[in-house]
Every structure is written in structure tokens, then in C-alpha cells.
Amino acid sequence: MVVQTPTSPNRVNPVRPAPKPEAPVEEVFIPRPPKNIEDAGIDPGLVEALILKYLVSVGSASGGTIATELCLPGESIIAMLSQLKQQQIVVYVGAAAMGDFTYRLTEFGRERAHRFMRESMYVGPAPVPIKDYIASIHAQTIVNVHPKLEDLTEAFSDLLISHEMFETLGPAINSGRGMFLYGYPGNGKTSIAERISLCFGDHLYIPKCLVVDGQIIELYDAANHERIEETRNTITKDGKTDVRWIKIKRPTIVVGGELTMSDLEIQYNPTTNTCEAPVQLKANCGTMVIDDFGRQRMRPVELLNRWIVPLEKRYDYLTLPNGKKLQLPFDELIIFSTNLEPKDLCDDAFLRRIPYKINVPDPTEAEFRKLFDFVGSDLGFTIDEKTKPAIDYLIETHYRKQNRQFRCCQPRDLLLQVRNRCLYTNRPLDITPALFDYAVSVYFTLM
Questions:
Q1: First-to-last C-alpha distance (Å) of the chain
Q2: CATH number belonging to the domain at 131-359, selected among 3.40.190.10, 3.40.50.2300, 3.40.50.300, 3.30.70.1050
Q3: pLDDT tens column, 409-424
Q4: Alpha-carbon distance 130 to 337, whole Å?
Q5: Going by C-beta distance under 8 Å and a sequence separation of 6 or more, which residues neighbour residue 43?
């Protein structure tokens, strides 16, 4: 039994234990700031290319501004700019604060910058070596995290979850491997899947981009990663972390019927000569949800075969634009969410690799009634003995007589219809048989 509250994430779950005092969170991995370019683990030629491409984009900038944009130590960038000035690639155009200078490209420097732009149009933070990224995944792995009941109740605090469902979900989440969530639409499969990452802790560090064999791969994705802002000393610019890395919430990436096989490979843009990480790399140390499994544009067996090695070995093979194969960690809980029977989608060999097949069932009548209590107050309704006859009427008239099955999403959806009707007619929020008749007429018309 699952339903999401419409607004408040602070509603107390019926199975939530008494809160415990918060303990200090111990960081399992912190990327330390590099002392210089060599310590950052990247080739000086790559840094020079980033400097020149940035200057050709903005016209002129101080050494400190360039260092900030590239997320590298200021002293090293200013030293490299001094060398570039000696080579007549850049010139001073003015003084800046604290003995710094403002730089501009010479004609020779512009030609050189445009050559770098033809090789790759990426301009931004300096990348992190792939070996450092792999080490960070091993340090922040979900395999070493074993969520308990209190972790689950915290993660699912805005859903109404039965104790029986927790008893099934807990071991599955602890496995850190994979699961099938199946059942009828509207019972909360996707809502459950989206909250599982929260059971493994609240955050991790990922690089903004990676470099391997000179090829930059953009990893951070603002559409899929939720950034956590960190407080830094803006006066001394001293920081405890390498600013090439970014602190994010444990990722939950949901892909649906639009998923194609190419989405699971490194995305190369031939126009800009830049690369973007595939969805499973972005989901490392979190959860990847394949929603509506079985409704993708490729056959289910093709998609399943793609995951056999990663699920078994916990690493994946990706191909760079130059054809080189990379072995990278596959450290995530992969969840197949479907309205179809798993046995109709794949064979026994693959099902063996997904140790947990969890049915998300329809709610019972008692649970269905309880859902009105759970979501009603958040929508502004008063659910009490006065509204009980209207709910009785709804169940008797529109469910029992129609032989209609209960779904967890329906109390919320029907109350939203009633609420919108009341707002439109400028009447107080109320629950009556007539309003339920209206809600059912527009909600179930084509179902």
C-alpha cells in the first residue's frame, strides 16, 4: 500500500519509530584540493587548452578568474599564464587585485585557441582523472551501506507503506543489486523506486567531468543530480574539498519508454567533439529505475542482456569515441518497474540475477479508507465522522457495484478532483456523494 502525500514531506509514517538524536555524519570520502596541476593529475597541455578556450570565449580575464573557472589552484594558473606570455600567446591588458593581471590572447594565441576549439569545444572546470573517479566510487559504494528499518521509514516518510512491504523491501535494498517491482498501475511502484536511494545516505561527491586518454566526459547533470551547496571561505579561498568535484544527493535516475540502447553508451557530439556520460554512470552510488519496463522501443531481452555482466560483476564496459573500451564501476541498485509479469519479459537465467521480485499489491478496503485520512488533510479537507457516509457511498456505488479495483493513487486523485471543483464553484472544501459522482465521472470515464 503506497501513496504519496501531495505537499508535506514531514507527515509521520504510521510505522515510524520515535526519533533518535542526530549523530554527526562521518564523511567516507572527501576529495582534497590539489596543490598544483601535477597534483590534480591532468596534463598541462589540457590545462593550457582550457585556458585559451576560456579566453577566446570571454575576451579577457584575470588569472584568479581563470583559476576559479577551471577549478584549479590560482598559483599554478598564474605561473602557466606567465609562461604563455613569454611565448607571446597572451598579453597583459591591465592590473588586477593582489598583484594579479588581466590577460588577453594575442593573434597567435587566438589561432591556437581556435585549433583547440576544433578538437573539443568543452570549456569549463578541469576534469578529474578516471582513476580518481573509480577510487571515489569504491569509497562511497552502496554495498557497504546496510539500511535498517529507521532508514527506510525516514526515506519513505511521505508515503504510506505497510509493515509487510517494509519487511520485503528492507532485505532487497540491503542487497544493493537489483529488483523487479511489479503490479497494477497506480499502486506506487515508481514512488517506491524514487526513494530507495535515500536509504543509502544523503550525499556523495562526484566530479563535474572526467578525463581519459585526453577525452573529456561530462558527468554532472543538473537535470538528474541535485546539488548540495557547500560553505566556502570566499576571502582566503581556502576549502576542504577539491572544487572540481560537486556534492550531490544520492542520485535516483528514472528512465522510461524513451530509453534506447544508445542512451547506455557514452554520448558523443560530433559537432562540439564533446562527450556525456551514460545514465548508468550518472546513477553510480545511487539508484537507476527502468520504469515501464517492457514498453521500450527495443525488445525486453535486448535490454536485459545489456545488464547481465554489470549485475553479475558490478562493473560495466563503455566505449570511447576512439574505440577504446573502459571498465568502470557499476555500483547502483537497478530497479525494473513494470505493469507486466516479470516471467513474461525475461527467462529464468536473467531472473536469477535479480534476486528480488516484489509485487506492489492493490490496497485492501481498510487500507483504501485509510488513504483518505493520509492525504485528505494535506489537500485541506477535514476527514471525520461527517465525511464517512460520503466515502461509504463512493466505495459502495463506484467500486463494489462497478466491480472496480482499489488503487493507491485514487483517494488522492479523486480528492484533487473534488478540491478543484470546490475552488471553481467558490464553495468551502467539502466531501459529498454528489462531488464524488462528479469526480468519478471525469476520472474514470475512459478507464
A1: 21
A2: 3.40.50.300
A3: 999 999 999 999 999 9
A4: 31
A5: 214
- Which residues, in sequence order, are CB contacts of 365 under 8 Å at separation 6+? 395, 406
Residue 345 binned pLDDT confidence (cut-offs 50, 70, 90): confident
Scanning 320-409, the segments in alpha helix (DSSP H) are 348-353, 365-376, 388-395
Give the distance, in angstroms, between the CA of residue 197 and the centroid of all CA atoms in the same chain. Answer: 9
Widest Cα–Cα separation across the chain: 88
Q: Provide CB contacts within 8 A for 341, sequence distance 6+.
A: 182
* Residue 20 exposed, middle or buried by CB count within 10 Å (0-12, 13-18, 19+): exposed
pLDDT of residue 19: 41
Rounded distance between C-alpha atoms, residue 90 and residue 437, angstroms: 75
Residue pair 340/163 in contact (Cβ under 8 Å)? The answer is: no
The DSSP secondary structure of 154-215, one letter per residue, reads HHTTTB---HHHHHHHHHHHHHTSEEEEE-STTSSHHHHHHHGGGGG-SEEEEESEEEETTE
**Closest among 244, 246, 189, 184 to 221, alpha carbons compared:** 246
Contact between 343 and 180 under an 8 Å Cβ cutoff? The reply is: no
CA atoms lying within 13 Å on the CB side of residue 317: 8
How far, in Å, are 196, 217, 293, 295, 305 from residue 285 at the CA level? 12, 18, 22, 26, 22
Delimit the domains of the chain by residue range.
43-126, 131-359, 365-443
Question: With contact defined as beta carbons under 8 Å apart, do 186 and 361 qualify?
Answer: no
Single-letter amino acid, residue 391: I
Q: Identify the three-state secondary structure at position 357.
A: strand
CA atoms within 13 A on the CB side of 143: 12
What are the cell numbers at 110?
Answer: 587566438
At 238-257, the pLDDT tens digits run 568 999 999 999 999 999 88
The mean pLDDT of the chain is 86
What confidence tier does 27 reach under pLDDT thresholds 50, 70, 90? low
CATH architecture of structural domain 43-126: Orthogonal Bundle (1.10)
What value, to the nearest 5°, has the Cα angle with vertex 75 and ends 70 and 78? 75
Residue 158, φ and ψ in degrees, nearest 5: -100, 10
Question: HSE-up of 124 (CA within 13 Å, CB side)?
Answer: 19
Task: Tell me the C-alpha distance between 388 and 179, whole Å.
Answer: 38
